[in-house]
Structures are given as C-alpha cells and as structure tokens.
Design goal:
Blueprint (H helix, E strand, L loop, with lengths): L16 H13 L2 H4 L6 E6 L2 E5 L2 E5 L3 E3 L13 E6 L3 E11 L6 E9 L11 E3 L8 E10 L5 E11 L4 E12 L1
Antiparallel strand pairs: 1-2, 3-11, 4-11, 5-10, 6-9, 6-11, 7-8, 7-10
Length: about 180
C-alpha cells in the first residue's frame, strides 16, 4: 500500500469516511510500524512513498577446511548458505579466517547466487588473503558488497572458495544477506 499526501483540513468542514480512510487510516497502514510484522525486520523503500519490510539472514560454518582448486568451488562443508526472498537489491557480507600454504599465494572467498537469480562467484565482490612473507600466515577478513542485479524472489547465496596456488585454509566462515 502506498502513502497518499494528506488532504488539507478546512475549518468547519466534515470529512467523509472515505476521506478519513484514505488520508488517515491508509497512511497509518503504510507507515513503518504497520509494515514491520516481525522482530528483526528492516524497512526499505521499494518505490516513491512505498515501504516494505525485509528480514536479514545469516549463516556460518566454523569448521576449518581446505582447497587447492584454482576456480571457485564448495569446500567439504558447503557454504555458508543463505536462502532468502529478495527484491532486486541486497547487501552481502562475506568473512572468514583464511591462509595459504604457499608464500605470497592468494586465497579467495566469494559468493554465488542461484534460484531466482544466477550469479557466478568472482573476486570483484569477494575477499582475499594475498599471502604473507611466510607460509600459512593468516588473517581474519570481511567485506560488504552491494548487489543490484538480483531477480525478485527466493535467492540462494552460497559462499565459494579458491586459491591462486598452494592450499588455502578457511575457517569461521560467515555470510550475511540484507535484502533491500
């Protein structure tokens, strides 16, 4: 329901029930308090004077796992993975503790999207550990990405991993999706 600019009251005039319902009741039903239906929701504008409630979701995998694959893949424990209903826009957070067995070799974490939308994992919206001066140096890394090319509907966001060379180790992996 969209908000309507309220009419101007005029002295000694009486509002009809239709005027009251359009300009008072319906506007209250379009307010943040009326749109939010559950704890933890955020409010987002979907068009001029139109609000929608969205529920963020997250997933985590604590298990330490490795890959030597140089193209994006799942680890032994897939994910983390978040299935969520989105509009065309979302904020995505990926984060993990990562390392690589080879000095100076990079390890990467990104995400792909399936279901209503098909997006392949790329470095452009992921995180990387570009190695260190010693083998197996590690860092906790995280980043947010604004994605605006989603198809409205149920989307599955899944973390993916790869290395430049060597063996990458990934643990305490997180994925957070804020649908907008």
């Amino acid at each position: 329901m969209a908000w309507t600019a309220p009419m101007t009251a005029v002295a000694n005039s009486v509002w009809t029930s239709t005027q009251y319902n359009v300009h008072v009741r319906d506007n209250l039903l379009a307010s943040e308090a009326a749109v939010v239906t559950a704890a933890g929701q955020i409010v987002f504008s979907t068009a001029a004077n139109t609000l929608a409630a969205r529920t963020p979701n997250s997933a985590a995998v604590a298990t330490s796992e490795t890959t030597s694959t140089t193209s994006y893949t799942d680890l032994a424990t897939t994910g983390p993975q978040v299935t969520i209903t989105t509009g065309t826009i979302a904020l995505i957070y990926v984060g993990c503790h990562m390392s690589n067995s080879t000095i100076g070799a990079a390890s990467y974490m990104s995400y792909g999207v399936t279901s209503a939308t098909s997006i392949t994992a790329l470095e452009d919206w992921g995180i990387s550990w570009d190695g260190s001066a010693f083998a197996s140096g590690a860092a906790r890394i995280g980043a947010w990405h604004y994605v605006s090319n989603l198809n409205t509907g149920s989307n599955i966001f899944t973390a993916k991993y790869k290395v430049e060379s060597g063996t990458g180790t990934f643990l305490n992996r997180e994925l957070i999706v804020f649908p907008l």
